[in-house]
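Notes, Module 5: Reading structure tokens.

Key idea: the token line is not a picture. It is a compressed description, and you learn to read it the same way you learned to read a sequence, by spotting repeated patterns. We will look at two proteins. The first is printed below with its tokens.
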Amino acid sequence: MCFILILVFFLLQLALGHGVRRLHVSAALFVKAKVAMSRYEPTTCVNYQKLRSNLDIVRKRLDRPLTLSEKIVYGHLDDPSGQEIVRGRTYLRLRPDRVAMQDATAQMAMLQFISSGLPRVAVPSTIHCDHLIEAQVGGTQDLQRAKEVNQEVYNFLATSAAKYGVGFWKPGSGIIHQIILENYAYPGVMVIGTDSHTPNGGGLGGICIGVGGADAVDVMAGIPWELKCPNVIGVKLTGSLSGWTSPKDVILKVAGILTVKGGTGAIVEYHGPGVDSISCTGMGTICNMGAEIGATTSVFPYNHRMKTYLEKTGRGEIATLSEENKDILVPDPGCHYDQLIEINLSELKPHINGPFTPDLAHPVAEIGAVAEKSGWPLEVKVGLIGSCTNSSYEDMGRAASLAKQALDHGLKCKAQFTVTPGSEQIRATIERDGYAKILRDVGGVVLANACGPCIGQWDRRDVKKGEKNTIVTSFNRNFTARNDANPATHAFVTSPEIVTALAIAGTLKFNPETDYLTAPNGEKFKLVPPTGDELPTRDFDPGQDTYQQPPPDSSSVHVDVNPQSNRLQLLEPFEKWDGRDLEDMQVLIKVKGKCTTDHISAAGPWLKFRGHLDNISNNLLIGAVNIENDAVNKVRNQLTGEYGGVPDIARYYKKNGIQWVVVGDENYGEGSSREHAALEPRHLGGRVIIVKSFARIHGRVDSCVCFCMYLECHMVALEQGLLPLTFADPHDYDKIRPDDKISIIGLKKFAPGKPLKAVLKHSDGSQDTIQLNHTFNETQIEWFQAGSALNRMKELQ
């Protein structure tokens, strides 16, 4: 703490006297004491000394060069002397520097924190209101409507934040990741955020990891946070970006190489001489979309681009301190990567990925032909730029440079065109500097500073549900129905520049590098490659003040949760495990193929129920495909023989005392850090999730904390634990039939590294026994037995 260091300064001065040398030593300490982590937390310092001290211990133990990822992660170890460190195997106990929560996930996180009984958060924490604002008409109107519709939730978040010492960013302030980059991220910081795109902060040299609300609660409660020791994938960049190629093309290319699960269990670490050709916000873009390859997070080494960005965003002291500690903010020469990818930026071409998955990569020059051959709609109905991935000043400037060329030739966008500023600071600055006007003049609608269509908060009315159509976005994710709830929408992700060009041309067949546009007067012209300032020449315009500082004394603050509310619901602690095996569970659904968190717990209109577990449970697995009939949200009730929706059948089983299990395929739970994807089955009577493999955040098979394990290990819910298990032999997936009864045996001897057995009782009287793996360690088993980590914490108090 800064005030502690300042106190130490004065005590040292009194003890040592005022000699020149002694004064110099304590003065240096005083100078360092003044470097706060952010302007909003003046008494909490950037602590490179602790990072360096931990690294000194780890270096002596490992005796080898370290990657940047290792330096930051191991520098935050709770016990650097005793912690076992083996990449890809051991679990690390870490002490993150701060917690960030978006408003949808913050509801459940704060409800859990309230249930912990603790008076105040243990680390700097913030809440950001960005997920509950639906795009309808335009920024001002949509924001006002959101404030009215979500008043109860915003009031709960504001008062609970004030009560427990959490900073609160009001609706309209911007998207969580842009706010973090502008105010809180810095080289070497470790941030956990309740959103899967938290890795955006890696663009400023931090290890920023997306987690569920339960992990946030652990850290806010002062409990060491567990992370499976990540492997490190190195991406060496050479050459330099130019022309139509943008930072977005780097991650689009990497996604095509690694696929949606190629980064699982690893941190992606960019390095090499090409890094210096990328802006700080461009590096943020690349790290942000690293979530789509399943990576734990992504990070760039400290360089002059970060220094400039820190200075431009009012953090010059942190920039100076980072320069002084640069040796711990870059990888060691000769460090080892578990996998190495090399990309020559000078040869990289503009890319566009999709549809329906972010790893289906195509050069822009080829997408028209591929779309024509595949039967994808060629007409671009809507172009959407912005989102947390691509809404920087540079992004908006480069898009505006293309819009200006079209306007100069008398053209406007053929497609609808929307613009989402990343923050109030970006909105105010692009308004001041004329970018917003240019984008409006070409046909754009400037939306609120919020997530909007990127997460499905879009009241789209230009096409009917089920109508095939194409949209192009600068977003990060394009799963089926994600943006507009229409499963027939073919969504492609690309850079803001390419989105703008395609929106002007109105077709996927347009290649801006080679093709001509036709002006109203018949003149043909080519778009000149986009240009834009990395940062504004003048300082950023901060816009409206949207931050609420928590009061020093919150004893008079009252947090209300109306028992009759349909938006908020207080949680009850889990019951302890009863010590028995789980026997004769019914299969609720055997999922066929891809099952993302959007399939398990859809966003969009369901976001309003994120703070009410019972109500949001009505979307449980409604997007998953049932292998029995290839239908969505249609499963057989094994007690009555009738078909019904997944949540309805789950509730029926629960009411009749029938425990149930979900069976899944590969990469189950791919997508957002949505703990509700595990809370809901728990609430509706589910006990086990058995899959071939879990995606990064959903399963502890890889890096973060398993979403399913949130239930057994962390969450405060209503019943007993939910077990996330994987087939020891993936072919055993085929042995399970939709009408099976499944028993999990061996729980009395539940131990780390020891598989469990499942007995499959088939309706024809036969049965199979299969082996299931888990990744619980001893501490997590204690959490399971207690009902939750918070329950266990209370037991130890």
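Here is the second protein, with the sequence above and the tokens below, as before.
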Amino acid sequence: MDCYTANWNPLGDSAFYRKYELYSMDWDLKEELRDCLVAAAPYGGPIALLRNPWRKEKAASVRPVLEIYSASGLPLASLLWKSGPVVSLGWSAEEELLCVQEDGVVLVYGLHGDFRRHFSMGNEVLQNRVLDARIFHTEFGSGVAILTGAHRFTLSANVGDLKLRRMPEVPGLQSAPSCWTTLCQDRAAHILLAVGPDLYLLDHAACSAVTPPGLAPGVSSFLQMAVSFTYRHLALFTDTGYIWMGTASLKEKLCEFNCNIRAPPKQMVWCSRPRSKERAVVVAWERRLMVVGDAPESIQFVLDEDSYLVPELDGVRIFSCSTHEFLHEVPVASEEIFKIASMAPGALLLEAQKEYEKESQKADEYLREIQELGQLTQAVQQCIEAAGHEHRPDMQKSLLRAASFGKCFLDRFPPDSFVRMCQDLRVLNAIRDYHIGIPLTYSQYKQLTIQVLLDRLVLRRLYPLAIQICEYLRLPEVQGVSRILAHWACYKVQQKDVSDEDVARAINQKLGDAPGVSYSDIAARAYGCGRTELAIKLLEYEPRSGEQVPLLLKMKRSKLALSKAIESGDTDLVFTVLLHLKNELNRGDFFMTLRNQPMALSLYRQFCKHQELETLKDLYNQDDNHQELGSFHIRASYAAEERIEGRVAALQTAADAFYKAKNEFAAKATEDQMRLLRLQRRLEDELGGHFVDLSLHDTVTTLVLGGHSKRAEQLARDFRIPDKRLWWLKLTALADLEDWEELEKFSKSKKSPIGYLPFVEICMKQHNKYEAKKYASRVGPEQKVKALLLVGDVAQAADVAIEHRNEAELTLVLSHCTGTADAATADKIQRARAQAQKK
């Protein structure tokens, strides 16, 4: 353990800091780091280098090269820079490289040097040029802050949803500030800048002067400032050599340190872990690295070559041309286990396990000591936690073996934390490998989450490793393997040296029917790469027509989209394609396409009936469908025409169409309707009232009700209304008028073709029993009983039924015998029945 703590450096009495090597960098840098613009992404992210010829004395004809490396120094991309001068580089939270040019244009590149997009920071920035820029991260995304040649600031808090904000002007600012940075407070981005001995805070509304509390006197300038990884703390380096540390709100001072160096540092970053009581700042000069905090002494390291600092959640990455190291505060669990002469439960358990491997009895003594203090559970937890913070696999194994050894002597220790730590360390060791180059710590891994880590592996095209991790952690397929395979397929379609058939087959063999995989998304990517035929082949594997059709329309394969929509049976989808086709094709081609698809044609006709009647007529004309064309003109005559002449003309067109369709019945009926309309118009002119648009029967009824019986009879003769129907119409109309005298005359005008029972029924319906009895006597024998029952003459109905010796009539009369009044009649019927049975 003494040897293990050899690289521990105390900072005051409460914390130790250690620096260990992550990778030995084998990258072949053609330039020194000091001659390059450098950007390294947090969370073990990639490193971007761009030699800056605009600041270095070299031939203008030499174009710079933008190079992207993994954290282990493996090359990921290299491209010749052909755009304008670059002021600053930075990585977004999605690991996209943002290149801020002097003209205010920001170019966005992928991890492998693929150009994604670009955007401008506004006309004011373009006119005044960019002096300096910062890429920062907030809870909303990644932002860009610009300092222009006019000494004004412009920023956007989220480049994914670009909203430019021009910050207020600093009064009297004639030159560039000596240093500045971005702060994130109250869910908004602010600018903190130093002008001589003064500090100014710019928010969205105003510029306000601020003063750090407890700042040492004599400061005439601030040379450097740094905000912590979480934007909660701020450090200021003054020209007097003092480093002030406090809260980012500038309301509370944490400490102040005199480093006795007045030269401005190259970099200054915070170095602290989550939930740590110790706050430290790392300051780098040309050949010196200093860690300062709330302690009278500092930790100093010698830098053998140009180095670059990358602030992390729980420490600082330091890389140079030859090495990549990590500096951080030693976690509490590791400190308690490994510090010299430690008697912590975890330290004793680790010793016990080592003695057990030596088959020494001291193992039992250590265990007894821990158990007597009741700290065995705590010891196991300490070893598990410390294993997570170790970078070397051999130390991880040693601590986990100790934890496993201690678990054997506990009855109810939950295994979840031990198993989970073993899984997490196996994942971390896999991604820390030199060929992968993502040196995440345990704290960073937990903050980043496994889903984001998988996304980053996919971004690096490390699909096999990502799938192995998903299978090892047993993640749900939709979140794990299927999602990664979908990303792999999207990358596969970009390989243009492989034929469409081979790519489609390979993707289908790999993906199959994996849950959560959308072949339409993969096909969309193929189409975006200019491989339309491959996209169509991939869509054949897409089971959801609703996903196939929109993409086929986008690819201008409308007829294929129509076939797919019809196969799906989804009428809404078919309508979508039809409307697209209608806008895309000329009318003739559109109609010809519909003729080959009967279902689509039928649906389009239904649509036209409600929306486009003229188009419907054109469809019928093109198909020579005279029957439907006639029906169309009939509907149109009533829907569009109010004048009788126009309506009759439309009906005449309909009649002609019916004749062409050889539907003589429909043609004759239409001609009769034309005659009726003309007659109704004449009746209105001569008699007044309303006749137009009445049916033939209603017209007759209206004439009768108006006292024009002669005209009604003439109308019946003209339109060959059968006598029975005419009698019914007149009977009903006269009864409604309660013109009983006219009704009686009508009944006697000739023998009724409908009999006289309807007269009885109609009179009773009008509650006129007196008139009904007049007609009951005239009803024929077969309906006599029913008529007498209608007028309430039960006794006479019984007599007639007995006379007819009809069992059905007897039963009917008997059903009407109710109460004592009809008792005699009921007895009479029963006797008649008995007599009939004897015979």
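Summary for the second protein:
- The domain at 31-211 is CATH 2.130.10.10 (Methylamine Dehydrogenase; Chain H).
- The mean pLDDT is 84.
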